[in-house]
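Input.
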Amino acid sequence: MNSEPHRFDRDTALTLVETRSHDGRVTAVFDARIDPGWWIIAGPNGGYLNAILLRAMMDAVGDPSREPRTQTTHFTARAKPGPARVTVDVLRSGRSLSTVTAQLEQDGRLIAHSMGALGMARSSEPAPISFQDASMPAVASPAECELVATSGPIAAFRERFEQRPVFGLGEPAMDAQATAGGWIRPAPERGGDALLLSTLSDAWRPAVFAKRAPGPEHRGVPTIELTVHFRAPTITCAIQPGAYYLVRFRTRTAGEGYLEEDGEIWSEQGVLLAQSRQLALFA
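Output.
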């Protein structure tokens, strides 16, 4: 059995520097390292940075029963490879919900600011309402979909995942639906958790490319703000290595150099694991 940590876990690992308390708030400071293996064109993938921030939140709260429920991150500057520092403030921990902020810094520069809520599963009498009206898109199985080759300016990031496209397969056209996505899983294999979902929320080719292909001078679609809602933590954590996730991303509005992208992450069994929305630049 391989006892080495998965590269994703190694590249999002943290070292606790100090913790302190003041007026009922807990602050935890961590050392991190931004690895160039998650680069996409000119900088690290936003979902990868999101996962580092989320791991810091989870470590600072220190209660496995409080699963991530939502995370919103604003990206303020481009990170570079190498050391970084994450400072987490646990603003409040109630009976079932903790509200947390985290800041990622390099060389005194703010790279990203994140806010999250980590909460226990709710129980009551009568039982909490539970339903899923959303349905997973009917698509071909992973085995029936072609594997994407690793090449081009985002090769480093693409090497971290196996991708089999389903949506957005036609030639770019302005009258096309701005939709992209397909089956995806970590390479090498890894089990499911909120950290992986946080990264998958920003792991696919931007949906806007279904309308206009990137030109030779294109500098990417850098994320300004990314929000992820984690909808099924118990099911997510039970997903075994080797399983695929179906992701679908859609952009409905673009203008003045900005666009939004809505995402869904599904299990192979049709459970909606996470929803995302981001605002990005069309650079």
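The CA atoms of residues 147 and 164 lie 5 Å apart.
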